[in-house]
Amino acid sequence: MGFIKRMLTNNRKESKTPSGITRRAPSHGRRVMGDIAANVEYVRNALFHTDDLQERSFEQAARPALLVYLSSVCDLAKIHEAILKPMLSSEDKDPERIIPAADMRRLTDLESGIELLLRGYSLLFRHEREEYYAIETAAIVQRSVDEPTNEKAVQGAHNGFIESLHVNLQLVRRQIGSRNLVVRRYSLGNMTKTEASLVYLNDLADPEIVEDIDQRLRAIDADNLMNGYLVLEYIEDRSFSPFPQILQTERPDRVAANLLEGRIALLMEGTSAALLMPSSFFVFYQSPDDYNSRSLAGSFIRLLRIFSFLIAITLPAYYIAVVSFHYEVIPMDLFYQIKGSVEKIPYPPILEALFMELTIELLREASIRLPNPVSQSIGIVGGLVIGDAVVRVGLVSYPMIIVVALTAIASFVVPSHEMSYSVRLLRFPVMIAASMFGFIGIALCLTAIFVHLCKLKSFGTPYFAPVAPFRILDWKDALVRLPFWKLNERPNDPRPQKLVQERESKEGKGHDRE
């Protein structure tokens, strides 16, 4: 137990450095001097004389000046057109009136300039001036805004997030034109220095939840935070829970809809997905397509998704329990057909089910890693050739093939990949319990899952709301999707400051509200 405890807890002891290696003292900042050579030498030493650090010296208004930049992250054409060309052709001594830069900062601290240098800024030093300018010249390398492959849109907007934080914020701003939309900026990771933005509506989001998320982000002391998926594990409540507590999405319309319900989004540079907090269980089964179709169709699809959760978890376990213990629950004619197929299998149903489930998981992972043309052939080979061969050899029965196929289809229905992974994991302990105790084992596992869902919280809000705590008014946009004019109040689980969102908009003699 002591070994497991040490493995699951962080080692807070002082780490020893190897001999001959000294730890770098934290920098407290150094003021710029009037000597250009001394300033540039400090920058060179701070960046360990990296080869992509470039310098360009010139004279501006008959006085020496020097431009320093990293060629690997800067746009050289922008440097020439926006800085060098105006500076060399003007006699004005004030760079702020000469350089047409959108982001230009006057600084006196060299450490601040070095941080900006790594983000694509150029540093302009002038002779006998105890200040310098940081000018934004970053090279923009990004892909086009396309429909996300992981979240296909049947109707509605077909744009998705990309790896650029600036573009992602622009997509959210286009969806919500409110002045209450607030953006808080962070720099995460001691070594990666990844830019991140916390986005929320100031008049809707709960200030306590916003402050809680802010404290969790600022408390992270890690070197590697390259993307939002790494940050997720640091800020969620229960990392060892099988259920995700933070929703990830690549669709701007989904982010906007959740922001309008009082939730908070986290966007990061280099990540094509947003993290939505707090998230309840039923949020993972909602899709923007539900609101782009009629209410009856949207409600049916949403109920089908929730029902697929039960199918994916319990169907293999139910089959194992019936074949092993409770064969009397199926009709006699069907029983004889199943019995004739199962009797040819030389091992218990649990091993048969585990063999097929693991085979499906292997095929699924193989189809993801391979190129598209090859992955399609893998699916055909796995579904037809291997499935037919294992039945003919006598390794698996025909009913088990049907059960595993229905289970796989049910797990694909979930619109969230994180929840889909949870479903895939949870069915294994339920299968083992069914093989040992039959229906009683299934009931015990489902009870344990239900109790865990009721106890789980996401940033202080109930995870299984509106079922626990029970709030019937929130069911009209959780389990089903009623018409918009019936959704008078926002969901209560993210604790929005204003509940009312619809004010009897469908009125008049020509409207039938029944």
Explain this structure:
The chain is of the alpha+beta class. Helices cover 44% and strands 12% of the residues. It has helices at 2-8, 36-46, 76-89, 95-98, 110-118, 165-175, 207-219, 228-235, 252-259, 288-291, 295-324, 332-342, 349-369, 372-393, 398-412, 417-437, 439-455; strands spanning 53-60, 63-70, 104-107, 121-126, 132-136, 181-188, 194-201, 247-249, 264-268, 274-277, 457-458, 461-462. The protein has a five-stranded antiparallel beta sheet, with helices on both faces. A five-stranded antiparallel beta sheet has the order 6-7-9-10-8, with helices on both faces. Strands 11-12 form a two-stranded antiparallel ribbon. Strand 11 (457-458) and strand 12 (461-462) form a beta hairpin. The protein is elongated, with a radius of gyration of 30 Å. Residues 12-27 have low confidence and may be disordered.
